[in-house]
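Lay summary

Proteins are chains of building blocks that fold into shapes. Our project writes down both the chain and a compact code for its shape. Here are two examples, one after the other.
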Amino acid sequence: MMSKQQLSDPITLRLPLDVLAGTEAVAGACDRSRSWIIVRALKSYLAQEGREVLEIAEARRAIANGEGIDAKEMSVRTG
């Protein structure tokens, strides 16, 4: 038996009307709730764009800490 996923307290979210309409259309077509559709969309975003945003932020922190290699230095090493 699968354990039930822990959920946060409810949040309030305002959506553009076209996004809400699309969410409702997909929810109705697959017999799911709007919340289910929104959670799936957020998980997809976090797995793709969200991950990229975090990787870029980490790279910027590394550069700020002097952990990067200058592009000119890299071309000397490889060229």
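And here is the second example, written the same way.
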Amino acid sequence: MDFLSLGILSLVILVFSAIFHEVAHGWIADRLGDPTARLHGRLTLNPISHIDPVMSIILPLLLIMSGSPVIFGAAKPVPVDPFNLRDGRRDMALVALAGPATNVLLALIFAAAIHILLPIGIDSFLIFVMEQIVRLNLLLAIFNLIPIPPLDGSKVFSLLLPEKEAASYLSIGSVGMFILFFLLLFPIGGFSLGNIIFNLLTLSLNLLGL
């Protein structure tokens, strides 16, 4: 497969994986008392309802084409109103976990499919596509669990903090993405966020036997 075709395939997988991720957020929020995502028509797998031109297409495509070891993309965040949730902080953490958990579940399903289909001589291209689905879903899960606001991991980590400190910590979400990209682009004192993500991805793939 040539580089351009691989890039397009990876982008398509990443977009749909991000859509599943966002729908999971909205679906769990709906189960926990907040119908906002459902009322906004976001509990659908229709890409038109979820694609963000920059985060869903331009950014991941640039990362793919640049050969970056860390590929990141996102669909438009589903709206969640924490005041509708039955237990605000705890339920927001559950809503946040739903996205990465869905990506891990997709990775496990396709990893199992690979181990079932590979011995019977299934088409190698199909195996390659499934391997990409596993890899990119694990990457999305790992990336989103980083405890830097506004990523999902920050909402889980905030449960470990007193309420006042948690609110202050989550308030940096407006600049959190700049902090995140700075850490990805500029390693500090031997600390490389990109290498940590890559090593966690490699470990996860090894555990799945891929």
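What can we say about the second shape? The chain has one domain: 3-207.
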